[in-house]
Amino acid sequence: MALIVPSILSADFTRLGEQVQAVTAAGADRIQVDVMDGHFVPNISIGTLGVEAVRRATTLPIEAHLMITDPTRYVDDFLRAGANIIIVHREVLPDPRPLLGYIRQHGAQAGLAISPATPVQAIMDDLTDADLFLVMTVHPGFGGQALIPDCLAKVTQLRQALNARGLTRDIEVDGGIHEGTVAQAVSAGANVLVAGSAVFNDRETPAQSIQRLRALIGA
Q1: Which of 37, 131, 170, 174 is catalytic?
Q2: What is the value of pTM for the model shown?
Q3: How does pLDDT run across 44-56, given as a tens digit for each residue?
Q4: Which of 14, 71, 74, 211 has its Cβ near the most Cβ atoms within 10 Å?
């Protein structure tokens, strides 16, 4: 069954606690906090205070997607803030395995992300070292972008590589996921779907949005 993970990047921050509680009640599987440093990506977003705020509003697992240049420096801060899953980018780590191991040793799940320009081959040596792999389907740093179709081929390639090695790992997709693309992502091999503007929108409630996405993938 595919998991639905609302990203608070698209939430109304004047009502953050209320909106986190709404998606929790609506049946979200976990919550994503996008962390941007203005260096690895052009924008700056929230940090550990955002994770702490979300932690106070929900009992769901929280994943911190660290779109930052120096994740090693800040991992302990996010662990203390209450992140259950910490996702770091392959592009900023010459060898991600020590940091992935550190995250797992300290009680959280470790995720490894790749941006659209990064080939799947860049993480082939890391398949046993992470609990999940995040394939960015948009360029990191901005919400509301359209999904880049070529990225779904990387999802399929990664799923085939994991299956060939007998590895059960989550493949997460993030970017441009909505009712028009969610089924494509699952068909490609993803089982964790990050949705921001598709969940936090003015057309329907978070519960209606999540139910619509689940209906489209039979989850």
Answers
A1: 174
A2: 0.96
A3: 999 999 999 999 9
A4: 71
